[in-house]
Structures are given as C-alpha cells and as structure tokens.
Specification:
It contains six helices and no strands. By secondary structure, the chain is mainly alpha-helical. Helix 2 runs parallel beside helix 4 and helix 5 packs across helix 6.
Amino acid sequence: MNRDDYLAMLGIADGDPDAIGQLVELAAEHGDMEELRRLADAGSKDAADQLVELAQERGDVGELRRLASDGNQDAADILAEMAEEADDSAG
C-alpha cells in the first residue's frame, strides 16, 4: 500500500496533523517496512521505533544495520545483543 491508500483507509486528508501518527500505526499493523522507512527518513521517531521493532521481529539484520548506521541507538543495541547471543551459542 502507498501513503494515499493509507490516508483513504483512515478517512483523513493529507496535511492533517494526526496523519503521520495514524500512518505509522497503520503501516506497522500491515508490516509495511517501506512506508515505515519513508516516514522514518522524513523524521518520524515513531516510525523509526516501529521499523526497528519490525526489523527485530523479522530478524532483518540488514535493516537493523542500515538504521544503526543512520544513528539509531536502539538498532545498534539490538545488533550488539544479537552478536552476543551468537557468540554465546557458538561457544
């Protein structure tokens, strides 16, 4: 789905101040990483948080690395935990 589809589903007009929050919620519910990424890249902290959570649930290390390299501390922490768990299970 794209942004306009989400807005139509929510019955809100583009430019509504609550639109971003509602878009984030709907994109997260649908597991739409592309839309969450777009919203996060546009500056939505909520979208970035949801994107990290979804990437973690899916085990998407590439997305977590991208987020961490963009300065997302939560993504960096998750990657560190994943690396530690891998080391513990290997040894």
